[in-house]
Specification:
The structure holds two protein chains of two kinds. By secondary structure, chain A is an alpha+beta fold. Chain A is built from three helices and five strands. The relative contact order of chain B is 0.13. Classes of the chains: A alpha+beta, B alpha+beta.
């Protein structure tokens, strides 16, 4: 898939903090606060702006004891959900702020 | 039905000169932040002095000055085209613009100055709507959180009960007659001398018949209220507590800088102060679950 060659980059309009292995993400424009479970938090942590989508999937496949296809599907679904909620964009280029 | 063209901040001309203040004024201090409200209308200022009598302040240094102008026949239609009440805030170029059906105004965040055009009909009510939002915006700039919660003082320690509307904040306040009530809906939280203190605010509470005590106390615990058929308490994870606290802060709405400040302050709060889920029945049995307060139960 073409999107796996893109760089997930966090939006400028969010604020986040990781506490005890769980990410808390604030979306001020929508007045919403999200918390992520440990796997979601690990993916969030891997989104540095300099890692391609497929590299994040590879890391998750290596770190978790689940079938590679399951890890890929879950990671793709999670990142796509973050894109749909405007917490991320998928960019052709790495994040020049990173 | 009378239709009035919506006055917007673009076509309503405010005199932003700080030197031309209106003749009548009232000064308040809420959570150590002093505010002065100025108006041409003496009756409005006298009503405000009565309404906010526990928060009056007599000095002349302020972190926010607000000019109020009253006008007849003001009604701003809801931007969505309905007759529903609306209340919106927009941040642009250092200003927070605050609008509702019966007022429009702004806060110049960098210059600590605000101006509002209010309807002559029940102006104190519209002033309070504006003031509540304006104060929250200025407070977060001053590292003070305006928090949607109930604040009580028991045994000289502050307890903060919170959760969405209808979760039982007023019920808990009503069932805690042995405590000083700082508010059953909106309180302020501020770091002071390496502690976090909870303060009273004049917003909302006394409409519910509670007599507020304008004081402050070091916070001992946060309690997320959940009505249930039995009473018990669970300690929250810090991340969950952080998310719940942030969700109770209205001033982060559309305010990115405010959100960063709130995130930083709330992270410190959950690192220092325990946060619990308090499942409770509508009686005062819940006090048995608040450490060290069992003897405080009132009959």
């Amino acid at each position: 898939m073409e999107m796996l060659n893109k760089y997930p980059i966090k939006s400028n309009d969010i604020a986040s903090r990781i506490l005890d292995g769980e990410a808390v993400v604030v979306l001020p424009m929508d007045s919403i606060v999200y918390t992520f479970d440990p796997v979601g938090t690990r993916i969030w942590d891997l989104i540095t702006g300099n890692e391609k989508f497929f590299a994040i999937i590879k890391t998750i496949q290596n770190e978790y004891d689940v079938p590679a296809a399951t890890a890929e599907q879950d990671t793709v679904e999670f990142i796509n959900e973050l894109v749909a909620k405007k917490m991320l964009i998928l960019s052709e280029l790495p994040d020049d702020r990173a | 039905m009378k239709k009035t063209t919506m006055t917007t901040l673009e076509n309503f001309s405010f005199d932003s000169s700080h030197k031309k203040n209106y003749p009548y004024s009232v000064a308040l201090k809420i959570a150590d932040l002093p505010i002065v409200i100025m108006a041409e209308n003496r009756d409005l200022i006298e009503s405000a002095k009565t309404r906010y009598q526990k928060f009056l302040y007599r000095r002349t240094n302020f972190c926010l000055a607000i000019d109020i102008h009253l006008s007849d026949n003001i009604h701003f239609p809801n931007p969505d085209g309905t007759e529903n009440f609306f209340n919106e805030q927009v941040f642009q170029e250092g200003r927070c613009c605050i609008r509702s059906n019966y007022f429009t105004g702004y806060i110049d965040i960098n210059n600590n100055y605000g101006k509002v055009l209010c309807s002559n009909f029940d102006p104190l009510s519209w002033l309070e709507h504006f003031l509540r939002i304006a104060y929250a915006v200025v407070a977060i700039k001053n590292e003070t959180i305006v928090f949607h919660g109930a604040g009580l003082i028991a045994d000289k320690k502050g307890l903060v009960f919170f959760g969405p509307s209808g979760c039982g904040k007023s019920t808990v306040t009503r069932l805690s007659k042995h405590c000083a009530a700082l508010g059953d809906d909106m309180i302020a939280i501020k770091k002071k001398n390496d502690h976090f203190n909870v303060y009273a605010t004049p917003f909302n509470s006394e409409k519910n018949g509670f007599l507020l005590t304008n004081t402050e106390a070091v916070i001992k615990g946060f309690y997320r209220l959940i009505q249930h058929k039995t009473t018990f308490i669970n300690k929250m994870s810090r991340a969950n507590a952080l998310a719940e606290l942030l969700a109770s802060i209205s001033s982060i709405n559309k305010n990115y800088q405010g959100s960063l400040t709130a995130l930083s302050l709330c992270t410190q709060l959950v690192e220092r102060i325990p946060c619990y889920e308090l499942y409770f029945t509508p009686d005062n049995l819940f006090w048995r679950f608040l450490d060290g307060d069992a003897e405080q139960i009132s009959d």
